[in-house]
Specification:
This protein has 2 domains: 208 residues, Rossmann fold, CATH 3.40.50; 78 residues, DNA polymerase, domain 1. 41% of the residues lie in helices and 15% in strands. The protein is built from 14 helices and 9 strands. Helix 8 crosses helix 9. Bound molecules: S-adenosylmethionine (SAM). The site of S-adenosylmethionine (SAM) has 22 residues, from helix 2 and strand 2.
């Protein structure tokens, strides 16, 4: 399970408010007795709501790469575990089918992915996700994984560093930032790194976004191979669903959302064009029906209450019968 991160290390006042909660439960059409997989347990907010909507005998398999999240939720939802309604699995959701097979948990009525980082992770400075409070340059969801943000910032060559900041942070000043970081490294804390990025781009310039936001996003994505994990988990989720079962994905930035949107569109297609032939292509039976033509987003009340919901996008699709 990697380094032990005692729950006592969690900031006492931290909590994670689940985003788009009602829309997610409605989108998944959760019914009593449903079998559901929550691939991103986090603080357990969605998990708890899935358990309550599927009561009295619905079951949830909850997964998280972060052992601290699993430990926290195993205490919070101990009653559901004792009642055999909740199983918790520590690991990457890229291992979804393995987890489901280990607990004979298939086929299922719904699968949920609420991507990214939890408030607990952001607010626990030792995890190094945030530049708002200084911590080590870590950013691993699973502390057993070898790559830390510090390894990228301090060891990678300038060009590779610039490329990841550009590609995964969509940061227009990536070259300038990478050059500055390489000249001024090593860095050991998130605060040092954030200051250096601010200096590299010449201060804040009145922007609402801290100049380090995009670079931190890029580092987190690379440390946790986040985009690759999404590509791997989506087809596994589809295979585990019953016909009529539903998949809900909440993403927080455009790179994630693009992968989900394109994959859903590909699976929903009944004709696949072949660009290598003039009038080429073939008909196929679609595997999914998209239920959200446009992603569902938070309304003003939710954004006011929970600013983290501002960038959330929820997409839902239903598995079609195979014959
Ligand atoms: C936004 S939080 C989920 C919050 C949760 N829905 C709630 O209501 O409390 C995302 C969680 O997903 C986990 N996570 C991110 N990528 C993961 C992956 N590839 N495999 C497993 N867990 C992952 C993170 O550790 C984090 O706890």
């Amino acid at each position: 399970m990697g380094d032990r991160l005692p729950i006592a290390d969690d900031p006492a006042d931290a909590s994670h408010t689940p985003v788009l909660l009602t829309q997610t439960l409605d989108g998944l059409a959760v019914r009593p007795g449903a079998w559901l997989i929550d691939c991103t347990v986090g603080g357990g907010g969605h998990t708890e709501a899935l358990l309550s909507r599927s009561a009295p005998d619905g079951r949830v398999l909850g997964i998280d790469a972060d052992p601290a999240a699993i430990r926290r939720v195993s205490l919070r939802l101990a009653d559901a575990i004792a009642a055999r309604r909740l199983i918790l699995f520590h690991g990457d959701f890229a291992r979804l089918e393995e987890a489901a097979a280990a607990y004979v948990f298939a086929p299922v009525d719904g699968v949920l992915l609420d991507l990214g980082v939890s408030s607990f992770q952001l607010q626990t400075s030792e995890r190094g996700f945030s530049f708002m409070q200084s911590g080590p340059l870590d950013m691993r969801f699973d502390p057993a994984q070898p790559l830390r943000a510090a390894d990228i910032v301090n060891d990678w060559d300038e060009r590779d560093l610039a490329d990841v900041i550009f590609r995964y942070g969509e940061e227009p000043q990536s070259r300038r930032i990478a050059r500055y970081l390489v000249q001024h490294r090593p860095f050991t804390t998130t605060a040092q790194l954030a200051d250096a990025i601010e200096r590299a781009v010449g201060g804040r310039r009145g922007s609402r976004l801290h100049p380090a936001t995009r670079t931190f996003q890029a580092l987190r994505i690379v440390v946790n191979a986040e985009l690759a994990q999404i590509e791997v988990v989506l087809p596994q989720a589809l295979r585990l669903l019953k016909p009529g079962g539903r998949l809900a994905v909440i993403s927080f930035h455009s790179l994630e959302d693009r992968i989900v949107k394109q994959w859903m569109q590909d699976e929903a297609r009944d004709y696949v064009p072949d660009p290598t032939r003039l009038h080429g292509g073939y008909n196929r039976r679609p595997t999914l029906r998209i239920l959200t033509k446009k992603p569902i987003v938070a309304d003003a009340t939710e954004v006011n209450r929970n600013p983290r919901s501002r960038s959330a996008k929820l997409r839902i699709a239903e598995k079609l019968p195979t014959i």
